[in-house]
Amino acid sequence: MSISDTGSLIMNIIIHRGINQIGGCITEIATDNTKIIIDLGSNLPGCQGEEFTKQDIEHITAGADAVYYTHFHGDHVGLSGYVHDDVEQYIGKGAREVNICKYSVLAKHDSKYERDLSVAQNMKTYEAAQKYDVGGKGEIFITPFFVDHSAFDSYMFLIEADNKRILHTGDFRSHGYLSKGLEKVLDLKAKNIDLLITEGTMLGRLDEKVVQESMIKAGAKALLKEDQRPHFLFALCSSTDMDRLASFHAACKETRAKFLCDSYQKSVLDIFTKYAAPYSNLFNFNDETTKVLVENCDFERDLRPNGFIMPVRASSQLDFVKKMLHYFPDAELVYSMWKGYYEGTEEQKSQNVIDFVNLFHGQFHYLHTSGHADVETLEKVCRITNPSMGVIPIHRDKNTRFEELSIAKTVNVITKSVTIDDMNIIVK
Ligand SMILES: [Zn+2]
Ligand SMILES: [Zn+2]
C-alpha cells in the first residue's frame, strides 16, 4: 500500500474516455489494493474516436474488484462483454432486466451479441442508498443513488475512499417525472464532496429547449384531440425511455385512444410496470383498455374509432410502419428524440431516422425533451455538492467549455491530468 507524506493512501482517478465526447464513458478509481471501474460504454454511432478493442478493455479492467454501471444505455454498458469473467459487474435490478431483454432480441438476430447476453445475465445487482465495500477490502466504498434519466433505473454513485468523497453523476436530468428527489438526495448525502465527475451533454446544446416531461404528455394529448377526429400517430422514440412511454400511454388513456405496441415493447413495459408501478400509477402499463398488442388487435374495431399512438424504433420498424401506412394512409409521425439525428452534422445524423422521416414526406410533430441535465441543473449540482478539489465534466462534446459557466468562478474545472493533495487525476 502506498502511503503519501501526509499518511493518506494514494488514489488514482483515471478518465479513460469521455472528457471530450458524449458517451463511451469509462472512469477508473483505484487505491493500491482496490480498483473500481464506472461504466464501460461503447462509442455512439458517428463518434470519430476509435473504439476500444477487447484487449484494451481487458487491460483497463485487469485486477479490478468490480465494474459498476450507472445505467443500461449502450454508451455506458456497451463494452461489458469484453470484461473477463473473473471481474464482477453490477447494475440496477430493473436495468439488468431491460439489458437482458435488449440483448436477447439482438442475439436472436446476430450471434455476436450472445456474449453480451450471457454477461448481462450474469451481472450482479445493487440497491439504491446501500453502501458497498468494493472487493471487501475496506478501502473503497460505493453508494448508488437513484437519478431520473431517459433510461429507466439509472443511478449516480457516491464513492468514499480514504476520507475523500467523489460523486459520479452518470447521466441524469431534473425535468422528468422522477426528478423531484434529486436536490433532496444531494442535500442529504452529497454535500461536501471533494471531487465531482458530472455529465455535460447539454453544454453543447444550449439552444435546445428543455421542458418538463409532463409537457410531452400534454402535447401528445393535444395532437390526439386535434380537430375532434381520430389520429393515428407513430412516435419515433426510445423503447426503453420509461418517462416518454408513460407520457404517450397517459395521453392515450386520457383521450381513449389506444397505446399500440409490439411484443418486444410489451416485454420492456412489463419490466417498467413490475419495478415502477408501485411508486406511481403513471408507470402501470398493465392496462388492457388502453394498451393493445399489434399482433392481436383488430384495426377496425380497436384502432379506427379513437386513434392510437404507437412507439416505434428507428432501428428495426421501418418496414412494419410502411405496411401500416396501407391501412392508415393519413397516419402522422411524432418525432420524439434528439433532433440532431435528423438535422445535425453528417456525423450526428442517423440514416434510420432520416428514412423514417422520409416515409412521412419530411413531415412530423416534434415532441421531445432531453434526457440530460440542462446547464442550470449542472450549476445547481455543483453549488450543492461544492466540490473542494474541483469538477471533471465528462460525457460532453469536444469544444464545450464548462469553464464558461458562472459556477466555474468558484469551482475548479479539471479537464487535464493533475495531482491535488494525494489524488492523481489522469485524463486520457
Ligand atoms: Zn450517455
Ligand atoms: Zn444515458
| CATH level-3 fold name of the largest domain | Metallo-beta-lactamase, Chain A
Low-confidence stretches: none
What is the CATH class of the largest domain? Alpha Beta
Largest sheet: 8 strands, mixed
Strand content: 15-25%
Describe the structure.
The protein has 428 residues and is an alpha/beta fold. It has two domains: 253 residues, Ribonuclease Z/Hydroxyacylglutathione hydrolase-like (Metallo-beta-lactamase, Chain A, 4-Layer Sandwich), CATH 3.60.15.10; 154 residues, 3-Layer(aba) Sandwich (Rossmann fold), CATH 3.40.50. Helices cover 30% and strands 21% of the residues. The protein is built from 13 helices and 20 strands. The strands form three sheets. An eight-stranded mixed β-sheet has the order 6-5-4-3-2-1-20-19. A six-stranded mixed β-sheet has the order 7-8-9-10-11-18, with helices on one face. Strand 8 and strand 9 form a beta hairpin. The longest helix has 17 residues. The model has no long low-confidence stretch (mean pLDDT 95). The protein binds zinc ion (2 copies). The site of one zinc ion (ZN) has 6 residues, from helix 2. The site of one zinc ion has 6 residues, from helix 2.
Summed up:
With 428 residues, the chain is α/β, with parallel strands linked by helices. Helix content is 30%, strand content 21%. Helix 3 runs antiparallel to helix 4 and helix 3 packs antiparallel against helix 8 (263-276).
Quickly list its features:
428 residues; alpha/beta; Metallo-beta-lactamase, Chain A; Rossmann fold; 2 domains; 8-stranded mixed β-sheet; 6-stranded mixed β-sheet; 13 helices; 20 strands; 30% helix; globular; binds zinc ion
